[in-house]
Amino acid sequence: MATFKSIRIDKTEGGTTAAYADFDDADLMDGDVTVRVTHSTVNYKDGLAITGRSPVVRRFPMIPGIDFAGVVEASQNVGFKPGDQVVLTGWGVGETHLGGYAHRARVKGDWLVPLPAGLSAAQAMAIGTAGFTAALCVMALERHGLKPADGPAVVTGAAGGVGSVALALLAKAGWHVMASTGRPEEGDYLRGLGAVEIIERKELSEKGRPLGKERWAAGVDSVGSQTLANLLAQTKYNGAIAACGLAQGMDLPASVAPFILRGVALLGVDSVMCPKPRRIEAWGRLARDLDGTKLAAMTTTIGFGEVIDTAHAILDGKVRGRVVVDMDGK
User: Fold this and answer.
1) Which residues of the chain are modeled with pLDDT < 50?
2) CATH architecture type of domain 127-268
3) Could you tell me the CATH superfamily of domain 3-115+298-326?
4) Exposure letters 143-162 (e unless 16+ CB within 10 A, then b)
5) What's the pLDDT tens digit per position in 32-75?
6) CA distance 73 to 119
7) pTM of the predicted protein model
8) Domain segments of the chain: what residues?
9) Selection from 126, 134, 176, 169 nearest residue 151 by Cα
10) Which pLDDT score is estimated for 54?
């Protein structure tokens, strides 16, 4: 029986363990497309899964990795044939279905998206789930009718994966972008992506007023909790915040004041179960509007053997931008 390299998470009496291990082809889960994984990435959720700091994984044993890019090896799906290059994000992969931190994956063809023209597999994973989510956030703000003439846009967690891509996309679209970060040393990096102003994280992360001075018309938030409450309290009349993360917490200690006095909207953005037509739209937007030079500036490439260490680092706030995993790298 054929085996391949993987990261395997097992449940123990004390929690979970993650380790590099051989995995048997015969133990792959059901699916109509088998993919040779060439690249993956390390997202915040991957860090939670590998470290066990949050109950992301709901099936054991599990191969983590919530996204991957690769080449179709075998297919019973009419939409794909051997040799096709594909990308996968979401659908519970790496949580309830064996994921991308392995040299082979078997999934439903309906979960796959063709690799967009103009992007390599490595670039697609430089974007990854974080960048894909950022694109969905920007699209949600635009569907709400917001435009750069309405005022500035704010991005929280701006030096992280979602934040970096959201910042670059908003700047490309002509927005005056205000970048919130707890890492002031990343100021030059953020300005290089298009930030016009840098906001110290403490301005937004500590308890604020139910309704504050109007500062921005739009925002992308991957932090949640008190930070999101403060964003809403300082959003302009008829503005909106697209929320997609909970790095600070799942709670929302806000009041109804911004909603009923200023008509502010809170736009929830989910990338896991996003319908395929919107996925294709978002990937097309990323291929078209995300500057390759800026993408390279926010990207670090690691070998497969560095994933577990990097998972710990991303939760400790030591990772900037995006991390590509070269599955053939050491």
Assistant:
1) 1
2) 3-Layer(aba) Sandwich (3.40)
3) Medium-chain alcohol dehydrogenases, catalytic domain (3.90.180.10)
4) eeebebebbbbbbbbbbbbb
5) 999 999 999 999 999 999 999 988 999 999 999 999 999 999 99
6) 20
7) 0.92
8) 3-115+298-326, 127-268
9) 176
10) 87
